[in-house]
Structures are given as structure tokens and as C-alpha cells.
Amino acid sequence: MADYPPEITASEEARLTEVAKDWALAHGLTVRPPPAVIAAEADPQSILATAVPVTLFPSPFPKVCFEQGVAVQKAYNQLYASISQDEEFLARIVKEIGGSDDFISELWEVHLRVKEEGYVQHKSLGLFRSDYMVHQDASGSGPQIKQVEFNTIASSFGGLSSQTSQLHKYLSSTEYPLIEKPISRDSLNLPPNNSTAGLASGIQEAFISYGASSTGHGKCVIFLVQDGERNIFDQKHLEYSLQSSTDPIIPVFRLPFSEIQQHTRIADGAGRQLLYKPPHLRAHTFEVAVIYMRSGYGPGDYPDARAWEARYHLERSAAIKCPSILTQIAGTKKVQQVLATPETSSNPSTLGRYLSSSSSSTLSALASTFTNIFPLDTSEAGLKARQIAADPELSKGYVLKPQREGGGNNIYRAAIPPFLKSVPEAHWPSYILMELITPPAVRNTILRNGKLEQGGVICELGIYGTCIWDQQAKTISHNEQVGYLLRTKGDQSEEGGVAAGFGCMDSCTLV
Ligand code: ADP
Ligand code: MG
Ligand code: MG
Q1: Which domain holds residue 237?
Q2: Which residue's CA is the nearest one to ligand 1's atom 22?
Q3: Which cofactor(s) are needed, names only (predicted)?
Q4: Does residue 276 form part of some domain?
Q5: What value of ipTM does the predicted structure carry?
């Protein structure tokens, strides 16, 4: 597809901009406007929405790579469910990250406190997203995906992603066939994308699996959110999908992380049911079956000890957490590094231990998505990584990552050596050093804030998975692969966060 997407005329650009923008606004492919775009005084009631940045065309993505990601997702779900059940392994991970990362240490403290009194809820919900980029090595073998990271908390954009697939499908039947260098309808291979419905059905399954309310109050789901969330409509699509269920009926409420103690309490008695009293409904109390966290993944949500008490309060409750603290820690980059570290005598295959029931072909399919990731400790591999990270030339092929989520935290290439110098050596083990994946160049046009940006782009594929397991019985009762995300950024940008303003929404045409 060398001539795809085709060159378009200025008037075609204007037309596609108009059509895409209106479709996005009409279908909730939207975010709240950034403060820089709309001054607060112009929108005091926060009634405005703006179209999310999107590509004008679906980006070409190798079919084999897409299928590779889809094929390994259930094994990845199982892997992370199993890691979440391995407290001993996670304790070792926390220890290796070390006391220099207060956030991870505090999370672990909360887990230990709940463990001491005993967990009352053993079921856990994972809404996961495994992120990849296409890797093409010089050997001449075909393209492969390599994992960027695995998300176990607040894996976002599922709500907007199925909408983006719909937008491109719409354009492919209405607009693309009419441009001067037309794209015929059947020349595009647009995979179906059920990300919204799929993620919602994961929450629904957990809601059912919680069982009957035992406090006499009706059950509900809580979306635990951040104040001033700009990416609210992504979450809203999931809420609406859940609320469209008629059997069972699922009441859904949004609760800001900062208001947990104000509106929830633990029921008297040993069951520790979490009770939620919506501030707008004086006569109603609900028993919370599922807490879906779209907050709480970074230090910003924990400004003081009270916020940590709030997390403890949720963790010790009977609500099914998405995620529990153990699952959140399973999603650290440190775990990803340990998994990717090649099998040695000191590291008997971690993968095999967690996926003992899987075939060797599943194990090798999963392992083939790993790229080189090194610790920055004083092990042999760590010392080698320290040499790379200190060298302005060698470090050019790497990215340095702290144990953080949400974008904007990484250090790239030549910025690594001076950065590390500024960090006390005792804190280095809280970082991992990862080889940069350099996907083949793709062209596309990004529509951002009404303006077009043309040129080389880099695509990151995310595959969603939902999983419900029992920590105690060590059984998995639900395991699904549910849709995908394609995020695209200009090839001059290191980070790809859509909400952070670097990336944009996209969908795949498989080639
Ligand atoms: P976060 O949890 O903050 O999203 P990521 O590990 O996903 O952290 O890194 C953020 C972004 O940095 C990714 O979306 C990707 O654009 C870029 N990135 C991270 N790791 C790599 C890598 N190994 N190769 C190329 N780009 C990477
Ligand atoms: Mg992440
Ligand atoms: Mg990421």
C-alpha cells in the first residue's frame, strides 16, 4: 500500500476535516477542552466538549502483527491473574524496586495492613491492555509485535476506540470512495472493534459474580475518577454500555477519589460490605459490588495520609476491585522486566511457572512479544545496563522508565545519562532500561483541534483483555480478549499519550 493513504487536494482536506469533526462531536468521540484552548471563564459550567484528535484515515497495520496480539491476549490475562496471586513474587518485586519509590512502598503497606486483618473479597477483576509496536529487524524475517507495556490499572481509551473504528468505517463508505484518488470500500480491511461493549461486559460479569447483596441495599458499580478528568467521555461510553443492561440492571455512579470517605462506609459486621450513599439521592444507599478505578494509579491522587486511608478503606472492603493493590503492582514495569529477562539458572522460567497449563507454543508466542529490558541494580545484567545508561552513544537506543503510569514519566535516549547522574545511585534500582522499538514509517494525517498535521507517524497497538479470578481458590472464571486500540503519534514525538496531547486516536486497516 505504497500509495496509501492517497494524497488529497486542499478542498478534500477541508471536506474530510469537516465530516470527521462533526461525526466525532455527534458520536461522543470527544474530550473536555484543554484549559489552554478554552478559558475557564468562557465555560464556567463545563458544558463544552471538543473532538478528540484522530487520523483522517485508518493507518495500515500488518495483519500478522494484529493477529499475533489478539492471539496472545488470553494467555497474557492468565499470566497477570497468576502473578497477582503470587504475593511472594510481588513482595520480592517491591523489595527490588526498593524504598526509594515511596508510592510503590505505600501501596504495599496498604496491602500488608489488609492482609493482616484478612481480605474478605478474594475475587478480582482485571481490565487489561497490552500495548505493542511493530518491530522489523534486519534479518529479513517478517514484522513482529513487541510489547511496550502491560496495563493493569485504568487502561483507558476503550470507550473512544470502538467509536474511532466506527468513524473510519463511516468515512470508508461515504467519503473515501469519492476523493480524486478514491479508496474503494473493499480495499480496506477494518477489523471489528468491540472495546466498549467488551470492557463493560467484564465489569458486568464481576457485578454478577459478586453475588447477592447481603445488606438489604441494592448493588451498584462505582467508577472511581479524578476531579476535572478531561477524558470523561471515554469513561461515559463504558457507563452507558453497562447501564444498557436490563438483566441485571446495573446502577453506576462516579465517585471522585478525593471523596471516598465522604460518601462511603463499611457496613457493621464481619462482611465489610462497602456502602455508598450518592450525595444527590437522600433516600438511597447502595452496596458496592465493583470498584472500577480510573484514578489512584499515580502519586497525584494521594496528596496526604487521608488519601492513603481512603485506598485502604476500599481495599479492605468486600467490593471487587479493578484492580486490587496486588494487581496494580503486578502491572509495574519492574514485573515486565523480570518476565522479559531471559531464562538463566538464577531465574528459572517465570513464564512457565505461571502458565504451567499452557502449551509450549503459547509460551513461546508470548515470549516472542518481549523485547530486551534490563534492571538497573547491581546484578550482572544491571551493571551492564548501568554502562549503557551512562554512555551518551549507547543510551541512544533506549528508554528509561520509572514505576509510573499515565504517560509523560519516561526518559529517552541521550537524556538518560545526565538524568541518571542527577538521581542518587541508591535509587537507580527503581528504574528499568528498555530497548527502543523502532516501527517502520507510516504516513497519515492527524486532525487535532481543527488543524491538520501531515507526515510520518508511529502507531501503538493496544489489545484489551478482561479477566476475573479468585485469589484464594486460584481459579479463573472469566477470560476474554475484547477489542483493540490504535494510538498514533507524529514520528518526532517520543511519548504517545492522547490525553497528554502527544498522540491521537486511530484504527487499523490490516495489510
Ligand atoms: P505509561 O505507563 O506511562 O504509558 P509506557 O511504557 O507506555 O508508559 O511509555 C509511554 C510511551 O513511551 C509509549 O506509549 C510509547 O510511545 C513510548 N515508549 C515506551 N517504551 C517504548 C519502547 N520500548 N520503544 C519505543 N517507544 C516506547
Ligand atoms: Mg501504562
Ligand atoms: Mg503506555
Answers
A1: 10-371+437-510
A2: 436
A3: Mg(2+)
A4: yes
A5: 1.00
